Structure formats: C-alpha cells, structure tokens
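Homework help board

Subject: predicted structure for assignment chain

Our instructor gave us this sequence and asked us to write out the predicted structure in token form, then describe one feature. I got the tokens but I'm not sure how to describe them. Can anyone check?
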Amino acid sequence: MIQINPREVAAEAMMQIMAEGAYNTVALRRILRQNGAMPKQDKAFVTETVNGTLRNIAYIDYVIGQFSNTKIQKIKPWLLAVLRTAVYQILFLTVPDNAACNEAVELANARGYRGLSGFVNGLLRQIVREKQNITLPEKDTAEYLHIVYSHPLWLVKMWIAYYGYAQTEALCKANNASPDVTIRTNTIHTDVQTLQKRLEQEQISVTKGILCEQALHLTKTADLAKSVCFQKGLFHVQDESSQLAVAVLSPKAGQRVLDICAAPGGKAFTIAQMMENKGEVVARDVYSHKADLIAQGAARLGLSIVQTEVKDATVYEKSDEEMFDAVLADVPCSCLGLLRKKPDIRLKKDGSEIDALIPIQRTILKQASKYVKAGGVLVYSTCTLSKKENEKNVEWFLQNHPEYTLEDMTPYLPKQMADMGKQGYLTVFPHIHHTDGFFIARLRKKG
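My token output:
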C-alpha cells in the first residue's frame, strides 16, 4: 500500500503557495488530487494545516523570527514551509509537540537538508519550550492585531478607522476561524428539509442556514463533488451573503434578469431558482472558460433559463438598453470579505488595488444601470469591506444618476436584519452574521 506523509504534502502545498505564488485553493486541490490515495482524515489534516498556517502566517513568522538566528528571508523555501507548518501544529493543533518536531526533522532530511536538520530541530524545540512566553506587541494597538491575527497592518488600520478597535478585533478573529461550507437548495428539484435528510444519509453533517431559508451549512465534506446530491443537481455552493444579495434583487418568474459579472455562477443559479425556472437569466463573464463553467453548472442544476454570454461588463451594449426587469452588478473587488475562506488573500493585497478597482466598478455600475427598464431594479454588491468600493461608489452613482434612488430593503431581508435595510444598503460581517463580508445596495430606476 502506498504510504503518503500528510505533513510532507502540507509542506509541499505551502511551498507552492508561498514561494511560487500559487492560489491556496488551486494548490490544495491539485496536490490532494495528486495524492488521492491518502485516507480522508489525512486529506482533512493537510487542508487544515495549509489553511491554518496561511491564516496565522504573520504570527507564525513572528514567532520563528523571535527564536531563529537566521532571518526568515534567508531560510531555504522547503525548510521554511516545513517550519511554518510545524509551528502551526505546535501552537494551534492538538498534535503532540514531539511528533511535530520529529516529523519536521525527517522532512528536512528527506529533501537533502540533513546538514540543517539540527537547525530545524533546535528551533522547534525552543518554540515548544517557550510558547507560553512569546513577547507580543502592546495590546490595543494595530500592530497587536496585525501580529496576533495575521492581518495586513494597512488593512487593520483601515478597519479600525471604519469600525473601531473592538469590532476590528472581533472581525479579525472571525476571519481566522475555519469556515464551514454553505450551500443553496435547488428548489426546482427539492426542498431544504428533504435535502438535509439526504445529505445526512451521506454522512455529511448539516445545520440550517442563519439568514436564508434555503441555505444549509455543511461539515465533514472531503470532496463535495462526489456527493450524490451534488451530482443530481440538488444544490450549489453559495455563501449566505451572496444568497442575500439575490433575495434583495427579488427576481420574479417570467422576468428578464441580467447578472452582469456572473462567474462562478452561484447568484445566477439562485436567481433562476427564485424565478421558478421561468423567464430568462442572462449570465455574463468576460472570460469564455468561466462562462463555460456557468453553463455546466446550470445544466447540472437543470436550470434551462440561464443563458451565458461572453461580454466585457465595462463595454456598453446599445442593444441591451432598458431590456431587463432587474440587473445584478456584483463587481470585481478587493475581496477583503473573503479572508476566512481564502487566507492567501492577506498575502497578496497591499491596498493599492482598491484605488485601481474603483474606476472599473463605477464603469460597470454605470453601464449596468442603462440596461434596467424604467421602474426596474439594480442591485450593486461586492464581497469586500472597503467603504471606497462600497458606500462611496453608491454615493458617486446617485450623484451622477438622478434617475435612480435607493430603496428600502426591509421587505427582502430576514427578520433579524429588518432594522438594517431602511437606508437601501447594508454590510454583513463574518463576526456578526457568520457570512462572508459583503455589501449590498438596492436601487430603483424611476419610471
């Protein structure tokens, strides 16, 4: 039988992500596929170790820096990947410290670093001895949150300015918790109660959604694509924040609806289901391979009204002017609401992309507004927590488009959020709503 060391697999994934710039979801998917003979529990260990290390990377590097005479930048990429994953196990998992240290030494030896195995062993043993005595930055400072929760310092400072220190700490803490998988019931083929029972029969742990009636939260899902319920098109993966954006759009059967930036397709699928698969949903993306994936997803779900198109949302389409009852503009953004699911985002962002994205977002919003019929609805949404990309863009749009007004969202929100919708826009947060960070605005075209 093939023996695969899950710690080696985790370190290899970390090296690809950190040294080669691979996306963590892509690197993990690829490396788990390559090591498909691993038992389910080992795959779960690899996933948790890689994502957990990424979520805590600044803290882990800070700890390594406190005890290492060699600067982080000078440590060989393989040894650094081994050290980082081992320190994560020592500080955050219930793995025996000796096992984490011994395995790290073996991994150093296995890749030809026998001469440096003493460095690896000595450093990790010192961290084990001193892990209760790590010196941290002063509490109640941005630097403390930056290190303890491994969030970029510029982002921590921005959020403190927006939300205050206590809320920012709670947000950072929530971003470091391992999220479950959220799905949306395909109401064309089943109902949420039946789906829950069928998933539980597949030994998947299921709990009901918090904000959306058709949402379910799943754990113990090593490979969801192998689920019979998935293969039969009974659900698609979609966070409750994204489902909420479609609820605010409130599409009706028989309407013509445009999802102008549709990839990966979850919102278009939910729109079609809310429309009872009657009418037309046009789902667009600028990339043909992403449009193909949307079409494949719609086919799996049996959603015949979803029509995909490859078009650039920033380019005006004269033939579409006032042709849609409702338009959803879920625009490209800095994705700062996704840190709990995509921890590598915190490695790839420096804040500069926010200002670069705003002209693109405003152009898409402007073009999308032209396609709405008189009296129709335009929903603007992002998966980020950046007021420049959210509230400020809505303010700019209203100043330049007097034919639109913000509309009370209360009728489309769950009861526990009723007090949030009156002004016509809202933000949901991981630490408050147990969703991705997300912004939604509902705009009505005068008619």
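Reply (TA_rk): Your tokens look well-formed. For the description, you could write something like this. The two ends are 70 Å apart (CA to CA). That's the kind of observation they're looking for.
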